[in-house]
Design a protein that fits this description.
By secondary structure, the chain is mainly alpha-helical. Helices cover 43% and strands 0% of the residues.
């Protein structure tokens, strides 16, 4: 399986459009145009077909991690505590009575 095949399968499985892939690659400071990207998804016998290199796929995967999880936290930073929403007294679950 080639890098192009892997890239195509990820694109379909994650339902990504070309512009979304370009934005994902920009998250890791990798610039690519939509036309260059389209060349990776063409059939191998097409005259404009271009082989997807390891660097492109690696940067896409790294950008995808950031896109899905968010940026890596900075070491030494204090995490922000968020309060969980507490149910109001009226909203507490009431036990069901057997009929």
């Amino acid at each position: 399986m080639t890098n192009n095949d892997i890239f195509k399968k990820l694109r379909v499985a994650l339902q990504l459009r070309d512009d979304e892939i370009v934005k994902i690659l920009e998250l890791v400071d990798f610039r690519i145009t939509r036309s260059e990207l389209g060349a990776f998804f063409r059939k191998e016998d097409h005259p404009n077909y271009m082989e997807c290199g390891d660097q492109v796929l690696r940067n896409f995967l790294n950008g995808l991690v950031i896109h899905m999880r968010g940026p890596k936290p900075v070491k030494g930073a204090v995490p922000v505590k968020t309060e969980k929403a507490k149910p109001k007294k009226d909203e507490k679950a009431k036990p069901k009575k057997d009929a």
